[in-house]
Amino acid sequence: MSTLLPALLLWFAPVEPGEMETLVKRLIGVFTAAEAEAADPVSAEQALLQGAIPGMLRRLDPHTIFFDASQFEQLKELEKSTRKGFGSVVSVLPGRVIFLQTLPGTPSARSGISGGDEIVAINNIPLARLDMEQIIGLLQQSRQQQARLDVRRPGNARLLTFLLTPEDVQSPAVDRAFLIKPGTGYLRIANFETETGAQMQKAIESMGGDKLEALVIDLRNNPGGVLSAALDVCSLILKPGTKILTVRGRSKETEEVRVADTAKPYSFRVSVLLNAKSASAAEIVAGAVQDHDRGPVLGEPSFGKGLVQSVYPLSSGTGIALTTAYYYTPSGRSIQKPLEGAQIDGKAGDAQTREYRTDKGRLVRGGGGIQPDEIVLPEATTRFRAVMDATGILTLYATQYLQKNKVDERFEVTNSLLDDLQVYLSQTKIRPGLAEWSTERDWISFRLKQEIFNQALGVARGDEVEMRRDPVVVRALESMSGSGN
C-alpha cells in the first residue's frame, strides 16, 4: 500500500497547540511520500517554495506573501525611485505606438526621436498585427536590454532605425504641478517615495508658496509607498503636534504618529482627490486631512489598504512580506478593509456601525478605506468617445496637423479645425451623426487640444488641459472657493 494516503491523513488530522515539531515531520512525510510515489517527478522547490509555504501564508491574509529569490530581487528593485527605460512617453494603439514626448537627457531624446514618430517594429517584430496587450508586453520586454526600433517619421518615406540602450530613468513622485487658476495650484502625487515631501515642497514653492490661496492635491491612482513620505506630506499641510495616525498590532506597542513640533506647514486651503486605486500612504494623508477638517476630500471611496507590511529576508535570497500591524486615522478608523476572518476594528462588523467624528464633530464612516466627503465621479464614457480613444484617431490627426503647423501655449481649437477633423474622420469611416457631433463637440475640442499639446509642448501641458475639465477637479475648486481651513 502506498505511504502517501496515511501521510495525508496525518497531515489533515486535528492539530493541538505546541505541536510544531510534529507538524514539520508531517510536512516532510507528505513530501517524501509524494517524491517516492507520484506519477511525475516532484520538485522540492515547486512543492515547498511554490506550494506549501504560499498556501500557509494565504490563510493569514491576502497581503502576506512569500518571495522566491527572483521575486525578492524584483521587490528590492521596486523600492528604488528609478527604473530602466528609454525616457519616452508613448501612445499605444492597436498595431501602433506613437511617441508623444521624449524626456531631456534620456536615450530616446539623445537618439533624435521626437513627438509624432511612430514605431513600426521592435527587434524586427512588426507591430501592425499585434493587439494592445501584446504591444505593451513587447515594450516592457524591450526595456530590459538594447532594442532596435524601426520608426516612421511623418513626412519621411524612409524608415529610420534606432538602437536604444535602457538606462535608469528617474520617476518623480510629484509628477504634475501647475497653477490651475490664479492663486490656486494643482499638484499630483503619483506615489510616496523617500523624496516625495521634498518634491512637493519644491513644487509648491514654484507655484508661489505661501502666496497660494488654495491647493488641489490629487492622490487618485496613487498606490501608496513609504510611510515616512506620507508623514512628510502631512507636515506640509497640518499643524505641528497634530496626530497623523495610530499604529496597532498584536506584537507591536500602540504608537501614535504626529506632525513634528518643528514643522512649518502652509496655511492655504487644500482639497484632496481620491479614487478606488488610492491606497496605503495616500489613504493616510487623506484620512488625516479629513479627520482634522483641513479641507474637503472628494472623488470615490479609496482602496482600503492600511496595514503594516514588514519585509523579512530569509535564506537563499528569499523573503517574506508579513502583516504585523494596522493603521488607524486620527479619529480611530481602520484604513484597512476587514480581511476574511479578521477583527481589525473590534468585533466583526463593528467598524461599519461605529461612529467616528472629525475635530469639528462631523460624522465620518469607518469600515476600511476613506469615504470622501462628497462623491464625485469621473465623466462618463460614451460610445463615440470610446471609439475615438480606442482607435487613437485624435493622436494620428494631431501628428498630421503638427507636420504643417506650429503651436504655442495660446493655441485654441477653432471651428474650421473641427470641420477639417470631421472630414478626416469621415475618410477613416468614422461618421458620427449631426446630433452626436453637436453633443460631443466640447469634448472633441478639449481632447484634440490635449493631443496637440502632448506632442507639441509635452505631456505635462496636455495634462493641464485635461485637469481643467476634469469634473472632480472642477468640484474641488468650487468646494474651496471662499471656504476657510
Provide a concise account of the structure shown.
The protein has 485 residues and is an alpha+beta fold. 37% of the residues lie in helices and 22% in strands. The chain is globular.
Description:
This protein has helices at 4-11, 20-37, 44-58, 69-78, 107-111, 132-142, 196-207, 227-235, 281-291, 350-353, 383-391, 393-404, 415-427, 434-439, 441-456, 459-467, 471-480; strands spanning 65-67, 82-85, 88-93, 96-102, 118-122, 125-126, 147-152, 160-164, 167-170, 174-181, 184-189, 214-218, 243-249, 252-258, 269-274, 297-299, 307-313, 319-328, 356-357, 363-364, 374-375. With 485 residues, the chain is of the alpha+beta class. It folds into four domains: 4-42, no CATH class; 82-170, PDZ domain (Pdz3 Domain, Roll); 174-308 and 325-375, Alpha-Beta Complex (2-enoyl-CoA Hydratase, Chain A, domain 1), CATH 3.90.226.10; 383-469, no CATH class. The strands form five sheets. Strands 3, 4, 5, 6, 7 and 8 form a six-stranded antiparallel β-sheet that branches. Helix 15 (441-456) packs antiparallel against helix 16. It is globular, with a radius of gyration of 27 Å.
Task: Set out the fold topology.
Layout: H1 4-11, H2 20-37, H3 44-58, E1 65-67, H4 69-78, E2 82-85, E3 88-93, E4 96-102, H5 107-111, E5 118-122, E6 125-126, H6 132-142, E7 147-152, E8 160-164, E9 167-170, E10 174-181, E11 184-189, H7 196-207, E12 214-218, H8 227-235, E13 243-249, E14 252-258, E15 269-274, H9 281-291, E16 297-299, E17 307-313, E18 319-328, H10 350-353, E19 356-357, E20 363-364, E21 374-375, H11 383-391, H12 393-404, H13 415-427, H14 434-439, H15 441-456, H16 459-467, H17 471-480
Parallel strand pairs: 11-12, 12-15, 15-16, 16-21
Antiparallel strand pairs: 1-18, 2-9, 3-4, 4-5, 5-6, 5-7, 7-8, 10-11, 13-14, 13-18, 17-18, 19-20
Helix pairs in contact: 1-2, 7-8, 8-9, 12-15, 15-16
